[in-house]
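re the bet — no i am not wrong, look at it urself. input seq straight from the record:
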Amino acid sequence: MSLATPTLAPPPAQIPVVPAPPGHPRTRLLALDGLRLVAALMVCLYHYAGRGGVVSASWHQNPAHVFPTLSGAAVYGCLGVEFFFVISGFVICMSSWGRPLGDFFRSRVARLYPAYWVAVVLVTGASLALPAVVHAVRTDEFLVNLTMLQQPLGAPRVLGVCWTLWVEVRFYALFALLVVLPGVTYRRVVLFCSVWTLAAVLSTSADGPWAELVVMPHYAPYFVGGLALYLVHRFGNRLLPWGIVALSWILGLRMATEGLWHAGSPRDPHVVMLVVTLAFAAVAAVAAGWTRWAAWPWLTTAGALTYPFYLVHEHLGWFVIRVLHRGWGVPPWPTLLITVCGMLGLAWLIHRFVETPVGPRLKRALRYS
């Protein structure tokens, strides 16, 4: 998931920069902050009203029966993850430009871990208070979860959404080793996008876990599309980056439809393709400079809340739904509204009292360690 929207850095001297159009922003891209919150809310609605499983127990019935109309749209909310990945490709390319590998590593650790640790502790506490919603894990499993390496180690996940973080971490590692380490340039990013796309296509017919673990063919098109869109933003309308974006969009349509639609599925394949297209189009609008008008200060807050909200909303939201709806008899719609607002409020507390003070200190500590 994209985790920050840093400022634009001057490009390396060896790569000529296409002059930016008049009014082209050289500051924080606030529209990206808004898009990140939209993607997080999409996933949230999917977890609350678009799927079955544990949330059905919290509502005491399938959400499709509780919210017949909303559920029909919420089933597509899972595509907010793919939306995140497109944004992440854009942001990681932007944030790494002109920075050495050490700075890139420290910034990612300081951004990812403080809120993540708090979320793991909170959800573990909820599992002890109401095991019917969240199953408690053993102490060793809890400790492994704090490392964010629970999936490759085969430990149960405390946070249901942390599988996306494992995807993000693998993307960071690939990009850091192949692009950031030698120095980020236009040509290196283009080469990285091209080789990764080719590897992703070839790996779809390969057997064995390594193809999925390293190449990530089902997610590569979204990251690659975001990387190429940043090149469009930085260097202007060049044919090659737009060609990479177009190919990534086509592959993304295929991967999303193949993964989410089948006979009897509640999802329409054409709607799946429409949502993926809108995700690419929204980030493309930022890349092309069409969102300069979106300069509202509250978008900065929206972007700051996105990551902690994404971490805590699933299991803790099911916990709140169960207490409000099944325990206290609050009607469905007020329960849904209170839960979403409550998770946003909790995200603000984590950002204000954890991320803001701890992140910079952790980054400084890593610099001098």
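see?? Confidence is low (pLDDT under 50) at residues 2-26. told u. also The radius of gyration is 20 Å. so pay up
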